[in-house]
Amino acid sequence: MRKSEFVMVGTLFNQKKVLVTPDYTNKVCKYRYLTEVEVNDDRLILTKTYEWFTKPMETSLENGIHYIYITVEGTPIVVNRF
User: Fold this and answer.
1) Per the confidence metrics, is the pTM higher than 0.85?
2) Cα 11 to chain center, whole Å?
């Protein structure tokens, strides 16, 4: 996986945490699940190789606000809004 400008952490409805990095050029987000060690220590382990998944970005317009998000296990994770 290439380095991204930024990443974010999302908490799913089932309390799992995912690390999300958007790719606006291809309109997708790559994400991976955080390990228990990463969650408990509140730090990322960058020396390991993890399996990354890809989801297409979705959009929604609510109350005049445009949301860009992905859905992981039924949980929407907002990547950007304007």
Assistant:
1) no
2) 9
